[in-house]
Amino acid sequence: MHRPPTTPAELSRRQLDVLCEIANGATVDEVAHRMHLSPHTVRHHLRVARQRLCAPNTLAAVVHAIAGGLLDASELPVRPSPASIDRARQHHGASDVIRAAAPPPPRTRRSSSP
User: Fold this and answer.
1) Which residue in 14, 15, 78, 94 could disulfide with 49, CB within 3.0 to 4.6 Å?
2) Distances (CA, A) of 58 to 14, 33, 77, 80, 113
């Protein structure tokens, strides 16, 4: 049974990983392949993340996750505007309202070969 979202949104490690992959431009099929999941499972994780973040769509979920500190906007190929992040923070009341079940792993940058 689905429980309604509580004040601090709690995303599982897998939901956060899927949302991060989507935020970086991957398709559902690409995420499924990379994470060894079915596309149906990836869509389920996105749906639950959207519900817990009270977001009407995936883009809004990404913005809410950035506003709450779950995703680092500087690591995304396309960054949301500061105004959209501020609106998401106002929606949740404060920037520290959203918490992840576990902190995301540190990301390493790949250097390009000359």
Assistant:
1) 15
2) 15, 19, 16, 13, 34
| E strand map for 1-114 | 10-11, 99-100
Angle 58-67-76 (CA atoms, 0-180°, nearest 5)? 65
Give the number of domains in the chain.
1
Which residue from 73, 63, 58 is spatially nearest to 98, judged by alpha carbons?
Answer: 63
In a domain, 113, yes or no: no
pTM for the full model?
0.62
Examine residue 70 and state whether it is found in any structural domain, yes or no. Answer: yes
* Residue 22 forms part of a structural domain: yes
Give residue-wise pLDDT tens across range 4-42.
444 446 889 899 999 999 988 889 999 999 999 999 999
Per residue in 27-43, is it b (16+ CB within 10 Å) or e — as a string? ebeebbeebebeeebbb
- Give tens-digit pLDDT for 43-59: 999 999 999 998 999 98
